């Protein structure tokens, strides 16, 4: 059976719907999919797309739905629970796998399917959105300019936007858990927010405070560049960071089902995600710095569209390449598959020249 279809699972989620709505601009017509017909069918009818309804827990229905599918874009988290069943179905049906994951543990888990994916001649690429296309590409770009780099620091700030409901729920699963860095090639537990600093994301403008978090680049940038020491940061209010420095005192509370239920109810009262005017005005800022054993450093910056819009753009860009036969079998990161300039194919992305300077 010839496979030429692209299935979008989780199309009723905030980011999934964005991908579905932008698909036509990329000349793509995904098959929309999810668990609930009442959530998927109206969107499919509005966009003139076909749809399929199945649950990831139903192995028979899952594999049947994917039998004629060339590529799955998996947009239904939390990926701690959903990535493995979808990945295993892709192996059985010979289907390429993309997702929007940003969780280091999930990247590491999916990397374990490399040999099986290579044998099936399919590509496995988690993190095909804002997590982690721009940061992965910037890391490889700097590595190529300083080949003996042994230390990498990456920071990002999303200016003028907010987390979607789905991302908030995924974050909820990690409340009370430790953070991490990569040290001498090994992912090493470390308290979230242990490190804080100010970063000049845009030269000549005020610096933004950031704190350390376990961003997906701890896994993907290591795979793409081989740099053994990696730290990742995100912007945050300094007073909040100072509060989080005492987080170890109440982590046990955050891990309780009662606390998580209360927080989940608050999340569900929020809007699904930023509206179109907000996305159009917002931007994503990336900063990265590599250092070699001789203490030479190179710093680079990148300005990108708003994070959720960027995710839709990069997923559809990569999906189009795969459907055209442009892919590398096995586990890949965005930069390992398509190079450091992949992100520059997205309209509105500006990358600065690398410079020997501090933040």
Would you give an account of this structure?
The strands form three sheets. The protein has a seven-stranded parallel β-sheet with strand order 3-2-1-4-5-6-15, sandwiched between helices. It has a seven-stranded mixed β-sheet with strand order 10-11-12-7-13-14-16. It starts with a strand and ends in an 8-residue tail after the last strand. The protein has helices at 14-22, 37-47, 59-65, 79-93, 104-111, 114-120, 133-145, 165-172, 217-225, 238-244, 251-254, 257-268, 276-281, 307-323, 334-338, and strands at residues 5-9, 31-34, 51-53, 69-74, 96-99, 123-125, 151-159, 179-183, 186-190, 196-199, 208-212, 229-235, 283-291, 297-305, 330-331, 350-351. Helices cover 38% and strands 23% of the residues. The protein is of the alpha/beta class and 359 residues long. Helix 4 (79-93) runs parallel beside helix 5 and helix 7 runs parallel beside helix 9 (217-225). The protein is built from 15 helices and 16 strands. The model is unreliable at 163-176 (pLDDT under 50). 45% of the residues are buried. It folds into two domains: 5-129 and 309-339, Rossmann fold (3-Layer(aba) Sandwich), CATH 3.40.50; 133-307 and 344-351, 2-Layer Sandwich (Dihydrodipicolinate Reductase, domain 2).
């Amino acid at each position: 059976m010839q496979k030429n279809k692209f299935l979008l699972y989780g199309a009723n989620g905030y980011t999934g719907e964005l991908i579905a709505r932008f698909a036509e601009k990329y000349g793509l017509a995904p098959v929309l999919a999810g668990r609930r017909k009442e959530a998927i069918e109206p969107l499919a009818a509005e966009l003139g797309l076909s749809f399929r309804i199945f649950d990831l827990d139903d192995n028979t229905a899952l594999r049947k739905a994917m039998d004629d599918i060339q590529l799955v874009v998996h947009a239904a988290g939390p990926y701690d629970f959903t990535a493995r069943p979808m990945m295993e179905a892709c192996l059985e049906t010979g289907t390429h796998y993309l997702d929007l994951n940003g969780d280091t543990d999930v990247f590491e888990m999916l990397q374990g399917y490399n040999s099986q994916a290579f044998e099936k001649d399919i590509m496995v690429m988690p993190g095909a959105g804002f997590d982690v296309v721009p940061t992965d590409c910037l890391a490889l770009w700097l590595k190529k300019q300083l080949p003996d780099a042994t230390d990498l620091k990456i920071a990002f700030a999303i200016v003028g936007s907010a987390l979607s409901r789905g991302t908030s729920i995924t974050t909820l699963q990690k409340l009370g858990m430790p953070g991490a860095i990569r040290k001498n090639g090994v992912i090493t537990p470390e308290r979230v927010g242990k490190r804080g600093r100010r970063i000049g994301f845009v030269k000549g403008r005020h610096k933004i405070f950031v704190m350390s978090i376990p961003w997906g680049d701890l896994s993907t940038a290591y795979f793409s560049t081989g740099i053994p020491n990696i730290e990742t940061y995100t912007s945050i209010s300094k007073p909040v960071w100072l509060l989080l420095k005492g987080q170890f005192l109440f982590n046990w509370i955050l891990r309780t089902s009662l606390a998580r239920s209360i927080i989940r109810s608050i999340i569900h009262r929020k809007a699904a995600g930023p509206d179109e005017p907000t996305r159009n005005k917002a931007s994503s800022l990336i900063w990265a710095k590599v250092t070699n054993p001789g203490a030479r450093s190179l710093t680079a910056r990148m300005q990108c569209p708003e994070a959720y819009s960027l995710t839709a753009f990069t997923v559809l860009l990569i999906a189009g390449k795969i459907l055209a036969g442009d892919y590398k079998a096995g586990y890949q990161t965005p930069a390992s598959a398509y190079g450091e300039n992949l992100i520059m194919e997205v309209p509105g992305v500006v990358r600065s020249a690398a410079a020997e300077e501090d933040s």
